[in-house]
Specification:
single chain, mainly alpha, 72% helix, elongated
């Protein structure tokens, strides 16, 4: 739960997302607009959820200013990092990989949590778009290494060596 939301509101939001695959895109956005309209005007969670709904229904250009508004107005931490990743992903798909990389690199220095590997994955995709494939591969391998049942240390070392010119 975040400030100015209730457990009941959060449950309805989660239920709407659970029904995403079975819902027409325009109808999904309409339902999300109605749900977020129940929050106080200018609420950062409303902007984030609306941005996510636009993004998920292929309206990335509409999502970008909503993500920025959510982040600029104090989106609670439980959604803030998710918003950064989603905004960066959207910028990348809209042909702005430099802006996406800037966001993701800054976020890597900002915090560490359960979204670290997701952030790294999106940064690797962005680096590929920027023509930095070796760096992208090294990041992806480095993120994968801790999850391997064997060869963790070897893969982590090889990942470091991919970008080491020596």
């Amino acid at each position: 739960m975040t400030p100015n939301t209730t457990p009941e509101w959060e449950q309805r939001c989660a239920a709407l997302w659970d029904a995403f695959e079975e819902t027409d895109a325009a109808q999904f956005r309409s339902r999300m607009a109605a749900l977020t309209g129940q929050l106080p005007a200018g609420h950062p969670v409303a902007a984030f959820e609306l941005a996510s709904a636009c993004d998920a229904t292929d309206l990335g250009e509409d999502a970008v200013p909503l993500y920025r508004r959510a982040l600029d107005t104090g989106l609670p931490e439980d959604r803030r990092r998710q918003a950064v990743i989603q905004l960066a992903s959207t910028l990348r798909t809209l042909g702005r990989p430099e802006a996406a990389a800037d966001l993701l690199v800054a976020e890597r220095a900002h915090a560490s949590d359960h979204l670290d590997d997701a952030l790294t994955a999106f940064l690797a995709l962005t680096l590929i778009d920027l023509g930095r494939e070796r760096e992208a591969a090294a990041l992806a391998l480095g993120a994968l290494a801790p999850h391997l049942p064997a060869y963790r240390i070897s893969v982590a070392r090889y990942a470091d060596a991919v970008t080491d010119p020596a």
